[in-house]
Amino acid sequence: MTGETGGPLATTRAVLFDLFGTLLIYGDMTRAWGAWLETLHRFLLGEGLTADLEEFEAATKGFFSKPEPELNAPGDTVFDRRLIALASELGLALTPDAAARIRRPAIDAWMVYVTLDPEAPALLRELSRTHKVALVSNFDAAEPVVRILEEQHLTPFFDVIAVSDAVGSKKPSPEIFHWTLERLGVEPEEAVHVGDMEDDIDGARAAGIQPVLIERWDPGENPVDYHYDGEPPVGSAAHRAKAGPDGLIHIKSLAELRELLRRG
Prior knowledge:
The chain is of the alpha/beta class. The protein has helices at about 30-45, 55-60, 80-90, 95-110, 120-130, 140-150, 165, 175-185, 200-205, 255-264; strands at about 15, 25, 115, 130-135, 160-165, 190-195, 210-215, 250.
């Protein structure tokens, strides 16, 4: 663990966590992306799609990194609206109901390759006795996040669950952090945020919160998450040089966070 704390952590009243890459660990994300693609493609063929898998794969590049469709576009979630827009580009008029039906199997196919950090349950249980605890996650549908927490028996440990799709803002905007802090009833200087991405670092800092970067990737690794083009997750070891000025806390595991908070 390196870096300056930027303040007395003994005064920390709230701990905020990112989900994917922080409490949940990425596995073989190349296979995850393939499973996601094939599941979506198979479903859309049943809805009248004529594009083959190769054409469909090319069209999905940038699916999650493109600007979000307008709120008044059809679809209940950001994910649904993205999928409806993609289908339209491929000449298919996908209904909001159809988009909602494919959402769960597509995300579930991807989630097969994502696992819970075995240190997470004990840490969250311990922190929930002494701190306010919140989740701050960028995800294009809130329902899968809520369901994942329930399936992993983590829901009781969180005082607030903030998912960008439901809140209406996403990291690195400070607004999703402000929304969370208001509901926790704590000031920014009383909170820390733990995440693995630059968006976590930049968003926490913009909100006046102490960021903690969990570095799960080894130098030279090039894992693929939902950013299809094969770039390492932003904030990973490959992006360490972008992490920012002194004041950032680096940890390698959730166990290190426990020790950091105990020492204050």
